[in-house]
Specification:
This protein has 177 residues and is of the alpha+beta class. Helix content is 45%, strand content 15%.
Length: 177
């Protein structure tokens, strides 16, 4: 209906030491359990105990609370897809860091004024270099906000910034395309 056949899971089965998946676009994938850390952690006796989400967006192992979607499967077995996923993640993290910086600046808060974080840690978060929940909580506290309110404001700033452009794409920056 939405043209997402290649993004949704139609069927999944376990055989030998692999997960076999068919997308709604009839693409077939085989991923060995030891190729994905999340899957590797599932004991053999529990590998068959999963459910495909009713809309096909992921496979869920309820006993372990593990969710796997087609993107993570493709990233595990297709090097090109993995590179694309890493580039997308880096872009998303940079945009998120820029939103954190913009909000901090708009509130008149200096990088050095965040209790519990060094100025360097704040700068790294604002560059999108691995912001943790703990650092977001400290930033929220520095803004005199509850974490949920702070995250909501960061999301609003992200909406103001708009979607990522081609210039934000790290792979294009690296190759000069």
């Amino acid at each position: 209906l939405h043209g997402a056949q290649s993004e949704l899971i139609a069927e999944a089965n376990v055989g030998d030491a692999s997960l076999f998946v068919i997308s709604c676009g009839l693409d077939r994938y085989e991923v060995p359990f030891d190729r994905m850390p999340a899957l590797k952690s599932i004991p053999e006796a529990e590998r068959n105990v999963f459910e495909v989400d009713e809309d096909g967006s992921y496979i869920h192992w309820p006993g372990r609370d593990i969710h796997v979607d087609l993107d993570s499967i493709r990233a595990a077995i297709e090097p090109e897809w993995r590179m694309k996923a890493l580039a997308t993640k880096a872009t998303r993290e940079r945009r998120y860091g820029a939103a954190v910086a913009k909000l901090r600046t708009a509130k008149g808060l200096k990088q050095s004024a965040v209790a519990g974080l060094s100025e360097r840690q704040v700068r790294r978060s604002e560059k999108g270099e691995g912001t943790t929940y703990e650092s977001l909580h400290l930033l929220a506290t520095a803004h005199r906000m509850e974490i949920n309110d702070y995250l909501r404001e960061v999301a609003e700033v992200l909406n103001e910034i708009g979607p990522a452009s081609d210039e934000d794409h790290p792979r294009r920056q690296l190759v000069g395309a």
